[in-house]
Amino acid sequence: MALSSSGHPATTRLLFSLLLVGSAAGLPERAAIDRVNRRGPSLGLVMSYVDEATALQASGYFQPWRALPFVDLYGRRYHIGSIRGVNVIYALTGQRRLNAAVTVQTLIDVFSVSGIVHYGTAGSCNDSISFGDVSVPRLVAYTGAWTWKKFRSPRESSAELSFGEYNVPDGGGGENLLGSLKYRNEELYSAGKPMEEVFWLPVHSAWFRTAEQLTVVELERCNDTFCLPTAPRIVYGLKGSSADMFLDNAEYRKFLFQEFGVSTMDEESAAVVMTATSPGIPVIVFRGVSDLAGGEPTWSSTSLMNLASINALKVAVEFIAAVGKHSSTASVKR
């Protein structure tokens, strides 16, 4: 398409702008996004596994927006609707760090989002939390970034995994050709601040205090195949860790607990928190325990996946309702 140089300058600039927008996002998608944002701010709700999204779809909590129930962007579907009267946009991120970060970044950049709520399942690293419990961590870390050291290098800190300590049959100690791993900090870029190296990433403090008030949430004890021996509970203020691997090793989970004090292990939480923290968007995490991250009974991960998803979802829904109520009260006071 050619543009005449004799056309009005303002008209020419407008046509170029329309061409750029159309080639970048597609005019139909842009119009749909604008329509969604005119509803006002929404909470972004993200989960990683299909089972976690299925729990939401089957629960009846989410009410699709009849005018425009979803928007498809970059291969992902962003569902438009509400939970307990609060505007919500939810999306299935897919597994591991990159998928989670891309989904959250899209939510923040494209839609009018006032905060990010993340729920899902996790493996337990120690006895502080049991099957079916829901952890609301105060801090999360990415424990999948390492500097690999030669086996003769001196140990620099406690946050270091020496493979020689796990030699078999020596029972620990000595050298091992795999050497050791030194855990690395993340580079956090935040709006209005210089880059800083951090290991622990905190969830939003005000949102965490709101979550602590959710004392009456009826969690599920049984599913179609199994009943837990005790009623599950919500556990606040523990530490969680993420890495791009499914952890199924008893010795490694014990190491993570001993060195970092983490109680749950997953693949996405740190990415979700870090992506939301950079622009200063409130973020919180709810993780239901579906398995022991190594050395668990053979039935746990398959039998409790849906139960852990449902319990994490229940707490997330009550939190969304509480945040919506607080926002409404603040608006009335203003």
From TrEMBL:
MF terms in GO: catalytic activity
Stretches assigned to the Nucleoside phosphorylase domain: 69-321
Top-level taxon: Eukaryota
GO terms classed as biological process: nucleoside metabolic process
Signal peptide: 1-26
Keyword Electron transport: no
Entry keywords, A to Z: Signal
Statement: the UniProt record of this protein carries the keyword Signal: yes
Name by which UniProt lists this protein: Phosphorylase superfamily protein
The organism of origin for this protein: Zea mays
